[in-house]
Amino acid sequence: MRIAVNGVELFFDVHGSSLGARGNELVDRPVVVALHGGPGIDHSQFVPWLTPIADMAQLVLVDHRGNGRSSRPPVETRTLANMADDLEALRRALGLGRIVVFGMSFGGMLALTYAVTYPDSVAGLVPCATAASNEALERGLSRLHDIASPEQREALARLRHGTVESAEDLDRVFAALSSFYEHDPKRTPPGGFKPIADIDMLNWFFAQDRKTYDVRSRLAGITAPTLVLTGRHDRIAPPDASDEIVKGIPGAEQVIFEESGHRLMREENAKFLRTVRGFIGRATG
Q1: pTM for the full model?
Q2: Burial state string for 35-57 with b = 16 or more CB within 10 A and e = fewer than 16
Q3: CATH of domain 2-284
């Protein structure tokens, strides 16, 4: 589905009903809005790894402005701040109350940005494999550089400085860096969908927008129940990046996935789903 908000057209998909049975009456179910990683891809990374929670909540999957099937405004408008405003406009346009916000990687940065900007709209917050500042991102990227092969360092530099030239070039970059994303690729379930790639969005974020990203001083203003999900072996958003989030948000919980890297949602999917379901129940029950 598509909707016009803030001068852009957002694509979103919905899994699950907004109403559930309780005895002989229908009651509202929690609404979870999931924000995908990247940037420059789409919500397909959640299928089928997150979509099973539609058995207990209504799940809304959103392609951010300039990503996936959403419209392509000028790159300088594709900021985290504008994406957070888009999400609030989408929430209002759909007539939703307070929402549970799940954000993966880049989507976690957006989730944090949204939560510090619109705290009263958030019923629960789940930042997953993410960071609260560019400083934390740089620490991870620098550590990767130190252990990378010459080929991987070249690919990392193209990503880090926003100089990827095409979708084919991006495929080569991620092929070179693939071993950094998972703790044990042999244990990671196969499957998933090839995302829609937008190179302009990817390059813009890494070369420009991420340089000013830092919500650490605003985390204390988040009042919603928060669950931080962390892969013990994550090299993209290392555990110390998650620790900053946990320490900054009053009452935040943390669950560490001991057998996972950055793709904990896939690497330990059964534990992931069990953990997320439990949190939604506690946050909205």
Answers
A1: 0.97
A2: bbbbbbbbbbbbeebbbbbeebb
A3: 3.40.50.1820
